[in-house]
Amino acid sequence: MNSENPHEKNWHRLKEQYLQEIEEALIDSSQPNTEGIVADVRFHLDRRYAELPADERNWENFQKIITQMGPPSEYAELAGEGKKVTASRVSTNYVVVMAVILAALTAGLILLPLLLPQGQLPTWTDKIRSVIEKDPELVGKWVSVDFVSEVDEFRPGERQWQGDLFLKELTFNPGGTTDCGFSWTKGWIIDRNSDVRAKYEMRRINSVAYLFFPWLSGDVTIRGMQPKYYVLKKVSQVETQQAGEQVAAIEAAECWLQLVDDGAYGQSWMQAAEFFRKNVTEQMWNSSLEGIRRPLGKMLSRKVKSSRYSTEVPGGPDGQYVIIQFETSFENKSRAVETVTPMLEPDGRWRVSGYYIK
Amino acid sequence: MAVLNGEDLDRDMNLENWQTQLRKGLLDIVVLNLLRHGPSHGYEMVQTMKRVEGLKIREGNIYPILSRLQTEGLVASYSEPSSDGPPRKYFQLTATGEKVLSEMNVHWDRIAESIRRIRKGI
What we know:
The complex is a heterodimer. By secondary structure, chain A is an alpha+beta fold. Chain A has a five-stranded antiparallel β-sheet, with no helix packed on it. In chain A, a hairpin with a 2-residue loop joins strand 10 and strand 11. In chain A, helix 1 packs parallel to helix 4. The longest helix of chain A has 25 residues. Chain A is globular. Chain A starts with 5 loop residues before the first helix and ends with a strand. By secondary structure, chain B is of the alpha+beta class. Helix content of chain B is 63%, strand content 16%. Chain B is built from four helices and three strands; from the N terminus they run H-E-H-H-E-E-H. Chain B has a three-stranded antiparallel β-sheet with strand order 1-3-2. In chain B, a hairpin with a 2-residue loop joins strand 2 and strand 3.
């Protein structure tokens, strides 16, 4: 779910976005087996990723896999064809029978909460799906900040749990699914494998939303012990968006740096941001790199030291920038810091607007 | 390298569109026939289809089709442990599926024969 490997993170992001789009397309066309289809596609994608050799795990190949899977709209179209054919063949008797069943179901749904003991939900997944209640506050990304014995024990900034947090983060999608093995409906988080459901609670502390998620391990469900609670903090939409932008910007910067590493200086100028090309001629750029970069020799290793989203940079127009620092080792300079500043251009692509080596 | 003018491009795009529509229309019978040889999982079916000329599909296409065939009672699924990952979902023909497939194959043979006869001038 959470990985330090940037390629894995990129893949995870791309995969989840694709799965969410499929889910939305299927939900829009009222497919009854949305969850099943999405789970099958997830399995397929995981397998494709696993089969990709480590040195081929890059953005380009990830995009290729997603392209080969086909557009999300096709899933609804193909899943729905049978339904349309069937509908055109239905008899009057069938319509009457369906009307009776629908009426019975509707009555059942209305009565269900009254018939069930308090706090208990039906145990079969389809029924759960049919009673999914929205909770807009829950939708989005949450990160774990603590693991406490009691909800009231939690104090922001004073972590109680000293060990590693097993559950790092959790994203709740609008259709009742999450980015891992849980589904949800208002008030409940459901383990899709065991069908165990946990009643969550949300609290605002100092204007920040926290989610208290009882962790129903075997100690609780089998041995009857009291659950502990994961405390998760909502990542704001702005933070989520900015984090996503940073990943895309880093990817763009790395591709661009590859050109510089390869000595393709002309191409690196061509692929830079318009602002950059307007202010630095290709000739100036070539001679700068010949004088500064080429003597450093071959790039041996490079890793992201820091990245920061900003709407302004010194000497540049207002816009969307990500200021990235790489710790780089060159053949003739073992420790260098490269600062690359991609900016978001009107076509939605990140292109480098500044590059410094120290 | 072949250079296409606008007219060639339009013609080729229409042909491509027709091929796509035809392929989509035939996916049910293709998938059911694949399962006729025994249970299989989605990934395996995609790999088989990719190897067959003219049947190349978008990989994700198989899953909504399998789901629909399952809803229609022509296909059933079950999970089996896998040595290299989580349990794998296998699909197999139901008795109804086998019966419907036989009828579909007969119908397909008739259509193929009709087209062949028309091409030959009947």
